[in-house]
Amino acid sequence: MNPRLSAVSPTRREVSKGLASLPLATLLGSSALAQEVAASLEEVSLELASGRVVTGALARPEAGPAPTMLIIHEWWGLNDQIKTMAAEFAKQGYLTLACDLYGGVVATTSADAGYTMGQVKSEEASETLVGWADWLKAHEGSTGKIGTCGWCFGGGWSLNASLATPVDATVIYYGNVAKSAEELSALKGPVLGHFGSKDTYINEEMVSGFKTALAEAGKSAEIYTYNADHAFANPTTARYDEEDAALAWERTTRFLKDNLG
Q1: What is the pLDDT of residues 111-153, one digit of tens each?
Q2: Any idea of the CA torsion for 46, 49, 51, 55, to the nearest 10 degrees?
């Protein structure tokens, strides 16, 4: 090894900062780049009241104290792409925890993802999310403000988390939102929802019912429907829609700035 070259080799922190300058879609669309970003996050664990120990990946902003974000993965599990999203939220100025509701399992096929998702117990998932929300709000680097965000499976759990514990902002990307007005009455903060008109899973009927229930509950919400399919914000899928994904992200960052600071 050339010692001169070794002396100027970039550190992981320097590499991470360099990657942060790349467009979000570029990072998410490359497994190698996403892996590099994911490796820069801090692995954390939390023991819940039930005695269960849960884990997550923490991304810290440059300055603090900062508002916080609790983000929830797709049905694939806590993979490098979701950890990259945590890093992106930190880049935006939020102390961000990407939680793991799969106990370390990361699926690589639709069959495995569907099976693992089906094994999630609602009571345990709720306990996990409430535990992490409390942890974030009490963190030394936190202002006490908190938002949630999730995609697909995680989109539904972003809403569930906000119903289970007080949060200041809720972001949902094409998640299950089949809730009644009575259930939504528990919301303490505004909601931002992103949905695709071509989505046959989280379809127009469900989204329309969600908007009606929100109105009946008297809750503040911004609900957007894009001419796109399910998972339109994920560059690793064939259904990715670059323009709509960028617009949804722009709306998300503005919404969080308005409600979390």
Answers
A1: 999 999 999 999 999 999 999 999 999 999 999 999 999 999 9
A2: -20
- In whole angstroms, how large is the CA radius of gyration of the chain? 18
Could you count the other beta carbons within 10 Å of the beta carbon of residue 48?
16
Question: Could you tell me how far CA 35 lies from the centroid of its own chain?
Answer: 17
Strands 95-99 and 53-59: antiparallel
Tell me which residue of 149, 191, 189 sits closest to 166, measured CA to CA.
189
Domains and CATH numbers, the chain: 3-260 (3.40.50.1820)
pLDDT, tens digit, for every residue of 180-230?
Answer: 999 999 999 999 999 999 999 999 999 999 999 999 999 999 999 999 999
Token pair belonging to 24: 């979000």
Residue with tokens 């810290």: 60
CA dist list (Å): 180 to 37, 202, 227, 238: 39, 16, 26, 33
**In the 8-state DSSP scheme, what is residue 235?**
T
Cα 142 off chain centre by: 18
b/e code 76-91 from CB counts within 10 Å (16+ = b): bbbbbbbbbbbbbbbb
Predicted TM-score (pTM) of the model is 0.92
3-state DSSP of 35-60? HHHHCCCEEEEEECCCCCEEEEEEEC
